[in-house]
Amino acid sequence: MKNDILFRSEVELGKFLGSADIISEAYRAISQTKSTYKVHDTTRPKIKVLAFKCPPDYDTKTPFLEKELDLVSSTKPHLLNFITTKVNSSFSLNKAAVCLFQNLSDNVKELENKTIDTPLIITGSDWGGYLAILYTLHLHHAIDVKESNDSKTIKRPICITFGSPLVGDKNLQGAIAERPQWKYSFLNVVANKDSVASFYSSNTTYKPFGTFLFCNESGGHAAFDVQESILLVLDAIKSPNANAGNLQIYDYNNVLSLMRRKILYRGDSELGELDMSLLRAGITLQLKDVGVLGDISNEQVMEIEKQSKLIRRRKNPYEPTKKLNEMKISLTYMEWYMKKKKLENGYYDGYKNSRTKDEIKSQSEILKNKRKLSKYWKDIVEEKDKMPQKEGAKLRKRWLYGGTNFRRIVEPLEIGEYYKDGKTNYIENREDHYKLLEKWSDEDKKDSGTSDEKRNKAASLTEDSCFWAYVEEALISLRNLENEGSSNIETALEKFEDYAMSAIKNYSVSPEIFIKGSSFMKWWEKYKTYKGNAYASEFARYMNNVGYKSYM
User: Is Cytoplasm there in the keyword field (predicted)?
Assistant: First the structure.
């Protein structure tokens, strides 16, 4: 790679930010806002800018920062408790930010209704940036809740702030990082002479999130999204004499104009060390471009490089729809295999009892797709389960439908492997992602009023993905009963009869369970022998009269 194209940019702001023009438009909207907030049109069709301004009494109150340095814990009730997750179950916010947002509380719902379906840039400068950030978090949460009950995809907001101080602690940072659709939507533009933006730095408990675009009076600018590098630059630009009494609000008009004119060109002579890695060279050029390279040691640059590499290894572009479509291809392959096996000796038993070379070869392909699907759905369920109840307890309908199909197609194979290895009590050892997918599916049916819908023909996929586990346990119970006898075992088998009969009457099992030689039919033949011809339960009559011949 030539050095003239060596520039490390970490700005990931989505499709709205194709150029820096929108940054200037956002700042212009702030200057045109006379009240606490206002929605502005932009030069781009359909995109709006929601600009926030700090109320004048906060701007002029000298002791403001001195009194509001405290962080407020999320354990105390306020409007932003929805941010917590299982991993980051509490967090702390700047007290001033909480107070500002609480003062806006009467207008938040009305503002949400006006803006939730609009492609939106949310902006604010200095303390107004606090309002922009917290409203963006609120709107993300509202979109999550709306999408969980609706298949419609809503455009996510982008938050651009100018000189906004850090707003919360590492747990807030972590809770936002857990949500891929939130974490990439924050950009804070910070000038190197802005004393407000750098008021909180590495010597406090405050932590940054999102991307920081640092700039200086010559138009130099660079973007960082690694926490260590952001804090180092904030330390470097922080005025040693800054205190709550002498902070000045910075005007970004001139620096934004210069920044847009700056040509981002890098030549060989700028690198200094010819043997440094491309990543480190890029970091060095960024620091040089914002005028802070002389304040940061080589060891600190190397630490930034190390953290950047770790983040890049962990980072995957969050394209949930694309990924879901990829998983559909794997699921389609599984469905093809399932239909093929149904015509032979049944999906479940055909997989569990593979014998021939062709069967084993086909099974290896199935295992590959099964592993891919299982990893995807484990990750999806784990991510959703971390979220608060309203936004995470249910997958959006499109994902929930895919998750239900996955569970009904893949879990029977999981069960087959489990019992083939000689294990017992699958239900007690069932993996969490299957449990949660089933739980969320049941809740969705209940909420939509479809749980009591009656079928009039047999399901192509057995609805209870644990059906074959119950069959296997019934086979084990029958063997135990023949060997030792027990009224408890007899009762358990009668319960299984009732369960199977109910599923048959509701058409919720696939006809493949009745294939000759299937695990279910093997159980029935042995159970019939044990009970004798005189046994006449509803299930026994149905099976003895071969009612299943017309089951379809």
Answer: yes
Cα distances from 546 to residues 186, 455, 478, in angstroms, run 65, 21, 22
Which of 509, 176, 208 has the alpha carbon at shortest distance from 347?
Answer: 509
List pLDDT tens digits, range 62-71.
Answer: 434 554 467 8
Residue 275 lies in a domain: no
- In whole angstroms, how large is the CA radius of gyration of the chain? 31
What is 159-197 written as a DSSP string?
A: EEEESPPP-B-HHHHHHHHT-HHHHTTEEEEEETT-TTT
Residues 256 and 324 in one domain: no
221 in helix, strand or coil?
strand
pLDDT in tens, 449-475: 665 567 789 998 999 999 999 999 999
Residue 126: name the closest of 160, 163, 94 by CA. 163
Return the HEC string of 222-255. Answer: EEECCHHHHHHHHHHHCCCCCCCCCCCCCCCHHH
Question: Which residue intervals of 50-200 are DSSP H helices?
Answer: 56-60, 64-67, 95-103, 105-115, 126-148, 170-177, 180-183
Instruction: Give the separation between CA 310 and CA 67, rounded to whole angstroms.
Output: 38
Quick one: pLDDT at residue 73?
85
Q: Are 156 and 140 contacting, i.e. CB atoms less than 8 angstroms apart? A: yes
Across 331-343, average pLDDT: 83
Number of domains in the chain: 2
What is the domain extent for residue 103?
A: 10-263
Q: Which residues have CB under 8 Å from 31's CB, separation 6+? A: 253
Which residues, in sequence order, are bridge partners of residue 215? Answer: 191, 221
d(CA 222, CA 416): 55
Per-residue pLDDT of 128-168, as tens digits, reads: 999 999 999 999 999 888 887 765 677 889 999 999 999 99
3-class SS of residue 220: coil
In the DSSP assignment, the letter for residue 287 is H
The answer to whether residues 471 and 358 belong to one domain is yes
The model's pLDDT over 249-261, given as tens digits with 9 standing for 90+, comes to 889 988 888 776 6
Six-digit token string for 195 = 């004393």
What distance in Å separates the CA atoms of residue 162 and residue 250, rounded to the nearest whole number? 9
Compute φ and ψ for 427, nearest 5 degrees. -55, -40
Going by pLDDT thresholds of 50, 70 and 90, the confidence category of residue 332 is confident
The answer to the question of residue 277 being in a domain is: no
